[in-house]
Structure formats: C-alpha cells, structure tokens
Amino acid sequence: MGTPFHIILFMILSFLTITYGQDCNTYTFTNNNVYSTCVTLPSLNSQLHWTYHPSNTTADVAYRQPGVSNSQWVAWGLNVDRPGMVGTQALVGLVSSNGSVQAYTSSVNGYGTGLQRSGLSFAVSGIRGELVNGDVVVYASLSLPSGRTSFAQVWQVGPISYELLINTTLNISVQLEESH
C-alpha cells in the first residue's frame, strides 16, 4: 500500500489528466451538443469546437478554456480583416466571484481595449457561457461574412481587476494571443 503522499499525488495527477487530458474528441458538453470539428489551440490549452453550415454561412462554436478560476475572463474571437488583435470580433466570458459566467460580444478596437460590451461586424446569436469544473465554455452562433471561411483568430485569459468588479463598463486591460 502506498504512503499517504503517494496516494494524494496519484489523486492529483488523475484529476489533472481528466481535466487537462480531454481532447476535442472526448469532451462532453453539459448541453450534449456535438460539433463536427474541433482543434486544440497552440497555447493556453484552449479548444475551439465548431460546426459550419455552408447553406447559410453560419457556424455554431464553443470556445473552451480549462483551468479558469473565479474572477477571471476568457476571450476568443475572429479578425475578419487581417491578422492581429486590433479589429478582432470577440466572444467574452466573464467569471464572477460566485462562479457564474456572463457571456457577451466585444469589438477590439485597440491595444488598450477594455473588452466593453459592443456589437460585432457580423451577427451573433445564442451567446451564453458556463463554468464547469474549472472550464469556461462560451457558446454562440456566428453569421460569417458571405463567401468567407478563413479568418485570423485570437484568444486569451486574464484576471479581473478590483476596479472591474465595481465598474459597470467592464474595463479590462487585455492582450489577446494571436494565431493565424
């Protein structure tokens, strides 16, 4: 029989394997949605799940960010005009201290963005977020620009400052991670 240290270490490693080891193909969403495509993004252990509907150029997406604690935010978005953060049309998940997630859209217009609530350059419907076992998932349906199926994407996670908690305009300093 192992020592208490070894048993605790085994339990921690098992939990981490379950939490962080789930790839796109093994993750089960709480709403039982199934997406046709998924990819583990190159940093932050993030995942993007989506189903593209060519008949109406929409995409149902679920952005999943593991390892998020209360009072943090996550963001994932598309830049329809160019690579880079500025111009990104983002889905934001804001985790409150009680564990609830506020999901909304934000157009990133500069490097000093506060991720304020705003409309995007394309329609978004059904946006919602949830926190499940330390994973934030933001769901939405995107009406993509007609004829376009390739976009730059950005994503990031960060802490909510005390000022944010008392400021209803949701001013967050952020620098999003880029990928093309």
How is this fold's topology laid out?
Blueprint: H1 4-20, E1 37-40, E2 47-53, E3 58-65, E4 72-79, E5 89-95, E6 101-107, E7 124-132, E8 135-143, E9 152-159, H2 162-166, E10 177-179
List its traits.
Immunoglobulin-like, five-stranded antiparallel beta sheet, globular
**SS-based structural class?**
mainly beta
Do you know the CATH architecture? Answer: Sandwich
- Globally, the shape reads globular
- What count of structural domains? 1
Give the SSE order as H and E letters: HEEEEEEEEEHE
Strands across the major sheet, in which order? 1-2-3-8-7
CATH class: Mainly Beta
Distance between the termini: 50 Å
Q: How would you sum up the major sheet?
A: 5 strands, antiparallel
Mean pLDDT: 78
Number of helices: 2
Instruction: Give Rg in angstroms.
Output: 17 Å
Strand content: 35-45%
- The level of helicity is 10-25%
The fold-level CATH name is Immunoglobulin-like
How many strands appear in the DSSP assignment? 10
Subcellular location: Membrane
Domain DOMON: 44-158
Keywords: Electron transport, Membrane, Signal, Transport
InterPro entries: AIR12_DOMON, DOMON_domain
